[in-house]
Give the backbone structure.
Amino acid sequence: MSFLAHAARLGAVVALTGCAVFPPLPTPRLSGDWATHHLSDPEIRESSGLALSSAQPPRLWTHNDSGDRARLFLCDLDGALVAEYAVDGAKAVDWEDIASDGAGHIYIGDIGNNSSARRDLTVYRIAEPDPREPARRVRVERALHFRYADQTAFPDPARNFDGEALYVAGGALWILTKHRGDTGTTLYRLADAPGDAEQVLEPVQRIALPIDSAPFGTVTAADASLDGRLVAVLLYQAILVYERNPDGTLAARPRAHIALDMRRTGQVEGIAWVGGGLFFDNEPGDLFRIPNPLDPSLERYPP
């Protein structure tokens, strides 16, 4: 969802909370390990998700937010475009996040639900294409349709059923919702199962986020480490890194809490583990890197 599209509503909330809305600024100039880049292709107008390619060398998949056609972009870690792919068999209603299982499958989350009114929520699975091949089209292997068991009204008055974070861990897909009624999030499990039957997702865990204000605390993306032990959750104003329990729930408190300076990072929308580090980006395509998010001395970004 575009932050600016709801400027009027947020302005009212800001007036009540005393918070300030900071527009995205140019990419900060950081040096060495903190160097940042930009997703250079002008067709990437509103990046809304990141996922690490399972091939080598390490690269990142991204896509545009709502309003674009069904397509994906593969970029180098410096932001340079490698290839663009049309996704046949998919609709692009409101793509909000993308995830990789590390074994050759990419999952595209058409799960944006700003007003909590949608009844066509879907995650698309594709086989990750090889950029060395000339074809620039990829077909959907599986469409995973679902609804939330605890949503009974369409639209929902609290608007707490907007999914904007998708990750893969433990052989399943996990969705974290973006709450507008409070500063929490809800975790759901989606099975990567064949067939067209709609899955009914029961809430697995309700998480109270360690933040102060709803407008800037809502979840915009998430990713699990390759071993599935850690989950990085991206908020407008912070990155939270949780340990993942054997049952798929997240630890009661984050292992790392890195505050983001929104005046420098803007509206952040995608995050991906690359080795032991994190890459994340904002809607205009500025790409940021944190080499070690578990460094106890790291409390904010930029440092």
Summary: Residues 61 and 74 are 5 Å apart (CA to CA).
